[in-house]
Each structure stands twice: as structure tokens, then as C-alpha cells.
Amino acid sequence: MNGEAKPVRERNGRTGWLKQARVETILFDVDGVLLSEEGYFDASALTVWELLTSPSYLGMSVPGVPAYRPDPDKGTVRQIRSAVFDDDRVLDFMKQRGINANWDMVYLQFAAQLSALRQAAGEPELPAAWTVEGLRALGPQLDGAAVRFAAFPEWFAGCADKADMFARAAERLQGPDVHGLWEVGREAFQAWYLGDEHYAGPPSGKLGFLQQEEPLAPVETIRNLLSALRAAGFRLGIATGRPRLETYVPLRQLGW
């Protein structure tokens, strides 16, 4: 970027330096730039937990994590995430192989546990389709099998990227079209992240992480920065993989 630096007087009185030449638009990412990503990872862990323990899905008892409820407190959320993602080692393993979408994270960890549970239970008959009803029918047949969250890297050893991991998961699951299982996880995740206020499905008692977004700097600091950029003549925009709803709701709530 070439050109002379132009001083801009911010509301707090400090002077920042912006380069003007040819630059008319500044785009911001959301996750990891404006807002924390931690809520997404928490929701991912809660989704896997729900799929395993809720009576609406497998309905299993899993040592080390509490029984399912739709409104865990912050301490319980930390406990569940620590267990489901093995103190984030599972998350790191996935990220290193290009898994960035939370829906994919949910699918891969749940699919891995489901296939291992079924093998440990003597490979009971698979449902006709990977649906909520199919999981609910399969759950009692898995009773007594052990969940091994930390074994995830072992099961996906040798996988170099997302394609390898999805192929390994499909191979381990066998049976019905695995996209159905991915879709079950996606819907469950959306209920956790959006909460009853914004989720289009039936009410579940979930507050939603969307209403609890955490900015990565003080709210007023970021607001002052945006105001200063606009005052300097820049057009501001967002470039993000978030859906529109998940972008606009927190920005409006934070006054941005």
C-alpha cells in the first residue's frame, strides 16, 4: 500500500496513522478478529455431549461428564469441553488437518465415538438411516460400552487432511449414508449456538451462544476504531464464513 500517511483524530484523543492512497475499503473478519471463537468450540463440545447422553439421541451414561441438560453453567461447559476434546488436543489435531468448520468437528468426534461404541457392543444392527430416530433406537444397544474421547488421534492416525478424515469416518461407520449423521449434528449444533430465540426448530430450553458473544477488545475501543475509520473516509465491511444471522446479531448487540 503506497501513499502518504494521514493522521486521524480518534474519539479518545489519540492519533492513529492510516494510509490513504487507493485504499477505499477495509474488510474485517469476525472470528478471531472482532469476536472470540471460544463460543463455537464450546457449542461443538456440548453438541457431541448431547448426541451421546440426551434421551433424544443415544441416551447413554458417560463417565466423566454430567447427565444431559439444556442449560449447563459455565463450569459445566468447561468440564464437558475438556472431556469431549481432551483438553483441546482433539481440536488441535483437527485444525492441523484443515478442519475449521464446527459442524465437521462435531461430526468427526461423534462419528468416531459412535463407531467405536458399536464395535465394543458387538456391532448391533445399524438403523435404516442416520436420523434422530435411528440414533434413539440404537442407543440402548450400546449400553455399557465405553466412550474414549482421547482416542480420537489414534483412530485418525495417518490422515493428512479433511478428505482423509471423512473417508476414515465413513469407513468406520459403514451402513447408511453418513451425510445424514452429519446433518443430525449440524441441526443439534445450531440449536446450541442460536438458542431458542433464533433457532427455527422446536424450543429446547437453550439460551444460545449467539447472545453471549465475547469481543476480543473492549466494546468501546472497537467502536472508536470503526468510527475513526469511517470519519477518515473508509468504507467498512465484513468478510466471514459466518451466516448472515450469526454475523449481524452480535454486531447489533454490541453497537457496532
Topology, pairings included?
Blueprint lengths: L4 E5 L5 E5 L5 E4 L9 H16 L20 H11 L4 H7 L6 H19 L11 H7 L13 H4 L6 H12 L4 H21 L20 H13 L3 E4 L5 H10 L3
Parallel strand pairs: 3-4
Antiparallel strand pairs: 1-2
Helix pairs in contact: 1-2, 1-4, 1-8, 4-7, 4-8
Q: What's the main sheet like?
A: 2 strands, antiparallel
Q: Which assembly state applies to the chains in this document?
A: single chain
Number of helices: 10
**Mean pLDDT rating:** 90
Percentage beta strand: 5-15%
Task: Sum up the structure in keywords.
single chain; 256 residues; mainly alpha; two-stranded antiparallel sheet; 10 helices; elongated
What report would you give on this structure?
The protein is built from ten helices and four strands, in the order E-E-E-H-H-H-H-H-H-H-H-H-E-H. The protein has a two-stranded antiparallel sheet. Strands 3-4 form a two-stranded parallel ribbon. Strand 1 and strand 2 form a beta hairpin. The longest helix has 21 residues. It is elongated. The N terminus is likely disordered.
Give a quick rundown of the structure:
The protein is mainly alpha-helical. The chain is built from ten helices and four strands, in the order E-E-E-H-H-H-H-H-H-H-H-H-E-H.
